[in-house]
Write a structure and sequence with these properties.
The chain has about 700 residues and is α/β, with parallel strands linked by helices. It is globular, with a radius of gyration of 29 Å. Helices cover about 20% and strands about 25% of the residues. The chain has four domains: about 220 residues, Aldolase class I (TIM Barrel), CATH 3.20.20; about 70 residues; about 90 residues, no CATH class; about 200 residues, no CATH class. The protein has an eight-stranded parallel barrel with strand order 1-2-3-4-5-6-7-10, surrounded by six helices. Helix 4 crosses helix 15.
């Protein structure tokens, strides 16, 4: 299995490769889902791809934000620059843009970003048919589904790092609650803030939606058996020492070692919540980190008060520059620092008064270890024969020089040639050199020139230039069409409502209950098993929030209404979605003006009602089922007093799923597109209203 590491900047890329990563993924200055990372310009990308390819590693470039229509030329320019610089694959969220890229450059390799929400075999089939060779699976995908998807196309799964609270690619919390779109790489992480929920035991402020960091180091055999080809480490926003520690730990695990020391170094580098195995193997009690939001480090001991001085009793050898976090009753109290060594431990200097029994956790060291430079072993064979051209071989490369004369005196020895070719001019290569010579004359300056020419030819051989170019001309805008129709998303209990001109989309509380004569609402996440439990007979069509609905509507033989989860934001997506959908919804993060430009026949725009912010594929009550009231609606309150409705529904196999809605309902004027109303949380809709992004796009 490939070990894939994050590179937020150039230094992190080299660290990841030196630590043993088989590939790195990174973002350009534009269209990166981590816009706050250092990211890469073309020159930095070229340097890193050359370094990686010389080591036999790969570089994947993420252009995985949503692209609005006015940015298409820049997007194609960025894709061409990445491809020309040597990128081994382009990582995209927009399925439709991916198909267009593949059409313009068939040799280009496409990977579907986790932001595209591939979570079942139907989504995998669509990705394959649209030209993607690999899908980065949604983190919520169960291992049984991973195995099925792996038979359709390559699968890449996250094994380490931060977990998004919302289902992959379907979070609008930062966008509507703060004006910073996660779909543009600008997420401000409101999920990491404190909330209370109106249920006993959860009504105190806590980090109610903050997930622990993922760690699947003990599950690699299961992933291999499921057919996973790439193990992905999250962390383009984290420091180089974290990248090094994570790669070292998983390299140890892949080598069959337990990796205790490597795991300890990883936990010190960054550890939120003492880790969780996420949802792939079923939700466990450690999934949420409700008490401590940030880096919790690794436990080194407990506080004892010695003559008024707080001392950590431990065998851990602390030193000057070490930093610690103090926990009391599992909750964070303050930070602390190494003060001095003391018998049986060390004294602490802290921001607040420490008490006996407080837990001491190491969070950073002043001199974290970084890996030594990695070198690629290569076999070089030299033929230096009198009367024949000088030749140097490496693999299937043969580099030829001038004909060599026999030496009249003091011929160069095998060791002379070997010493010359051990000088690799800074390349990450470790040559093993075999020499055949019969005593030739070779001037030192000419030999050095021959050596430099050979290594230049080897670099060109290992890092070939790309000849193909993208065709970057844009297609015309779609013909706009005035749409006076109204579509309404309604709760299953009120599904008979609607005027004659309305399309009714039914959102069931229990997805196993049949829907007849109306459009069935399909959430962004369903497994193959859950889909098999749905009765599609007599439905008018499906309203799909994920790409998988394209294949499912075709299988069921019903019309598709592409929902807001398709993120339609440019002319290429409009043209492509109209091939498979009777109706489609424009991105709710576009302004009304931007939506009107793309309002082709069949287009709708969300104009009023509830704004769904997040889909939660886990239980925020930590699966305390015995004490659960099983209400349909709860209220989630933030520290500012804003109330966000929390809706519970059942999957077709009876699993609880949740949706988070905005603290203010949407109310905007109609544009050229048809009007889509969301009344699915009508029972607890807040009194406040907002125009959303109608007047100002966040894309």
């Amino acid at each position: 299995m490939e070990l894939l590491a994050p590179a937020g900047g150039e230094a992190a890329a080299y660290v990841a490769l030196d630590a043993g990563a088989d590939a790195v993924y990174l973002g350009m200055k534009q269209f990166s889902a981590r816009s706050s990372a250092e990211n890469f310009d073309v020159s930095a990308l070229s340097r890193v791809t050359k370094y990686a390819h010389l080591l036999g590693a790969k570089v994947y470039v993420a252009l995985n934000t949503l692209v609005k229509d006015g940015e298409l030329s820049e997007f194609f320019g960025a894709a061409e620059a990445a491809w020309s610089a040597g990128a081994d694959a382009i990582l995209l969220q927009d399925l439709f843009l991916g198909r267009e890229l593949k059409r313009r450059c068939p040799a280009l390799t496409l990977h579907l970003s986790t932001q595209a929400g591939c979570c079942n075999v139907y989504g995998a089939e669509v990705a394959r048919d649209y030209g993607f060779s690999r899908a980065v699976l949604a983190r919520e995908t169960p291992i049984s589904e991973v195995e099925k998807i792996s038979r359709i196309l390559e699968t890449e799964v996250f094994v380490q790092g931060a977990l998004c609270t919302a289902f992959s690619g379907q979070c609008f919390f930062s966008s509507f609650a703060g004006g910073n779109s996660g779909n543009r790489g600008k997420c401000k992480q409101p999920c990491r803030k404190k909330y209370s929920i109106d249920r006993s035991g959860f009504d105190a402020l806590s980090y109610a939606l903050s997930t622990s960091d993922l760690c699947l180091g003990k599950r690699l055999d299961a992933l291999k058996d499921a057919g996973v080809v790439s193990l992905k480490i999250e962390g383009r926003m984290r420091r180089e020492e974290y990248v090094a520690a994570a790669v070292s730990y998983y390299r140890a695990r892949l080598a069959g070692r337990e990796g205790k020391e490597e795991f300890s170094a990883l936990a010190r580098a960054y550890n939120r919540g003492d880790y969780t195995e996420g949802l792939m193997f079923g939700q466990k009690e450690d999934f949420l980190s409700r008490d401590v939001q940030g880096h919790i480090g690794v436990r080194v001991g407990l506080v004892k008060i010695d003559g008024g001085t707080p001392v950590c009793r431990t065998s851990f050898a602390a030193k000057k520059g070490d930093c610690f976090k103090i926990l009391r009753g599992g909750k964070e109290v303050c930070g602390a620092y190494f003060s001095k060594t003391q018998t049986g431990g060390f004294a602490l200097s802290a921001e607040k008064k420490l008490l006996a029994g407080d837990e001491v956790r190491l969070t950073s060291r002043q001199d974290p270890s970084l890996p030594a430079r990695r070198l690629r072993p290569i076999a070089v064979r030299l033929e230096m024969k009198a009367g024949a051209p000088a030749k140097a071989y490496c693999g299937d490369l043969c580099y030829t020089g001038e004909v060599l004369p026999a030496a009249e005196k003091a011929p160069l020895s095998e060791e002379d040639f070997r010493a010359a070719f051990l000088r690799v001019d800074g390349l990450p290569l470790a040559p093993q050199i075999e020499v055949e010579t019969d005593g030739v004359f070779f001037a030192r300056s000419a030999l050095n020139a021959f050596r430099r020419g050979f290594y230049a030819a080897l670099c060109a051989h290992l890092c070939p230039k790309r000849e193909e170019k993208l065709r970057t001309a844009l297609p015309p805008l779609p013909n706009t069409a005035e749409n006076s129709r109204v579509a309404r998303i309604v709760d299953g209990q009120t599904c008979d409502m609607g005027a004659e001109n309305e399309l009714i989309i039914v959102k069931q509380r229990d997805l196993k209950v049949p829907v007849r004569g109306k459009y069935l609402y399909l959430p962004p996440f369903l497994t193959s098993e859950e889909i098999a439990a749905i009765d599609p007979r007599e439905i008018a069509g499906v309203f799909g929030e994920g790409y998988y609905a394209i294949a499912l509507a075709k299988k069921w033989g019903v019309p598709l209404f592409a929902g807001t989860g398709f993120h339609i934001a440019n002319r290429i997506a409009v043209s492509a979605v109209r091939e498979v959908a009777q109706y489609f919804t424009l991105s709710k993060e576009l302004s009304r003006t931007e939506q009107d430009v793309l309002a082709a026949e069949g287009a709708f725009a969300l104009t009023a009602g509830d704004i769904k912010l997040m889909d939660l594929i886990y239980c925020p009550f930590e699966k305390t089922c015995a004490a659960c009231s099983r209400r349909e609606f709860y209220s989630m309150r933030d520290e500012a007093g804003r109330i966000f409705p929390l809706r519970r529904y059942l999957s077709p196999t009876g699993a609880c799923r949740f949706e988070v809605y905005n603290c203010a309902a949407l109310l905007t004027e109609a544009g050229t597109a048809g009007r889509l109303y969301d009344d699915s949380a009508l029972a607890v809709r807040p009194h406040a209203t907002t125009k959303g992004h109608a007047e100002r796009s966040v894309l």
